[in-house]
Amino acid sequence: MIRVYIVPVLAIAGMGLAAYTIVQGSKPVVPQPPVVQPPSAPFSTFVAASGIVESSTLNIDVGTPVGGVVDEVLVTVGQDVRKGEALFRIEARELEAERASREAALRVVEAQHRRLEASPRPEEIPPAEARVLEAEASLADAREKLALRQAVTDPRAITVDTLSEARFLVAGAEARLAQARADLSLLKAGTWGVDLDVSRAQVESARAQLRSVETDLERRTIRALVDGRVLQVNIRPGEFAPAGVTSQSLLVLGEVSTLHVRADVDENDAWRVREGSKAVAYVRGNASLSTSLTFVRFEPLVVPKKSLTGESTERVDTRVLQIIFAFDPKSLPVFVGQQVDVYIESAPVSASSGTPGTSEPPKNH
Description:
By secondary structure, the protein is an alpha+beta fold. Among the domains are: about 45-55 and about 255-345, Efflux pump adaptor protein, beta barrel domain (Elongation Factor Tu (Ef-tu), domain 3); about 60-90 and about 220-250, CATH 2.40.50.100. Helix content is about 35%, strand content about 25%. The protein contains five helices and 15 strands. It has helices at about 1-25, 95-120, 125-150, 160-190, 195-220; strands at about 45-55, 60, 70-75, 80, 85-90, 220-225, 230-235, 240, 250-255, 260-265, 280-285, 285-300, 305, 320-325, 340-345. A six-stranded antiparallel barrel has the order 1-10-14-12-11-15. The protein has a four-stranded antiparallel beta sheet with strand order 2-9-7-4, with no helix packed on it. It has a four-stranded antiparallel beta sheet with strand order 6-5-3-8. The radius of gyration is 48 Å and the shape is rod-shaped. About 20% of the residues are buried.
């Protein structure tokens, strides 16, 4: 009974289900409309490119020449800064203490130099002159005593030793007078020029040492080297800021009064783009937002493509020519780092002449 009725019925049902599945699978797939309509090229002949918005000075990754603990962050994200304005400071208490020590040492050598320049003191001259007068008086007394001894006519009244002693006293008094006069002349002449040169050198050395400490101290304050806007801050007080290249920028700065678009043109289409070409940028996700671009320059080096879309058909070994365009940020509401679609006008070319012609926007590789 089962073999006669149920098995044939199941076979017929299976064949029907298979036929239904084949029919349903053979129907064409209806494409889904895009969530956002892509922009249309404003030129009859063009090259399509992927662009990224950047500051006109490029995005400057601010670093520190010396590593240390961040003492104070002086700016916030979105703040406009001027060239030379402080961005953040590295803790520098040991340098501040050394600067105080160097300043004290400089004051000492400067005071010593001023003393040498002011020499002699007016109060030092009268004592030296008095010593000269004293030496003159001593010499006069010694000469008078010698004259008295020499005036004795009787050789038995005075010995030879007494006469020699009187002569030695005169010679000693003359020497002391000469020394007193020399000391007075040296005192009035002031400080020797060579001593002043040595003193000046000591002062300059102390000043140089102080400047060295002040330079090291100034390096602990990181300042903006261009006018711009703070785009990102990745440091906080108390964190350690390493010197050199870091995996994450401590602070990103850029000039945004004029924005640039870095457009990546596939190397296969690079020959079709000319200097000064017109271009239009569209905001991704809203084709109604667009702005005209002004040609700035070609980047002369063709580089591997870095701005990837993630599509399965995209080739990572693509090389691109980068073209820099400029635009007024007031004309397009975008942020630095945002991607845009760029259409660049190219000259029409016939196939026989091998010159540029109309092309559809190339797919991302």
